[in-house]
Design brief:
By secondary structure, this protein is mostly beta strands. It is elongated. 7% of the residues lie in helices and 65% in strands. It has one helix and eight strands, in the order H-E-E-E-E-E-E-E-E.
Length: 204
Amino acid sequence: MKKIFAILVLLIAAKEKNYAQPFSSTLNKFMIGYEVAVPSGDFLSKTSWAGGRIEYRHMVQPNVSIGMGMSWNSFDEYVPKTTYQKPDGSGAVTTDLVKEIYTLPLTLSAHYYWIKSKGIIPYAGLGLGAQYSDQTLYFNIFAVEYNNWGFVARPEIGIVYPLSDATGLYLSAAYNYATNKNEAVDINNVSQFAFTIGFIFSSR
């Protein structure tokens, strides 16, 4: 995946000087991408390579949009033998386990674009909403499943590389801060850094 990002960045940089096609700032944007998530909390440490994002952005001004988006990420991590204490202190269990955690952030967003007559368009924005999380812990042949909702905030920066006046590629980096908690297994939040590469399709 790192090679794909590096190749795309090099291609964009190489073609930037020769690009002469303006990108429409009045058409609404439909965005679909592949998303990689790096957990930031204490409960997870392994990167998720199984994720994606779908987003719609309505242009309210040539350089401002409002919209809605949905992401999904699946985490899978093996944990060596560890002792887990019950929150009330009444007991503990020592075991190795496999963590499978699924996150689904849903946000309403606003973005600002630094529009130029041609070439790469940087942008920044913020999404606010709710995140659903499913957390399954496998203890040998046993499994314990939890699911909950939390508040999520998603600040984001990115770039758009136009291919025509209505299509383009985009790269973005965001931080999903989510308040999903589970005291039984020491989950204080289910937050992650999200890196997305994808396509943009525009229409009225």
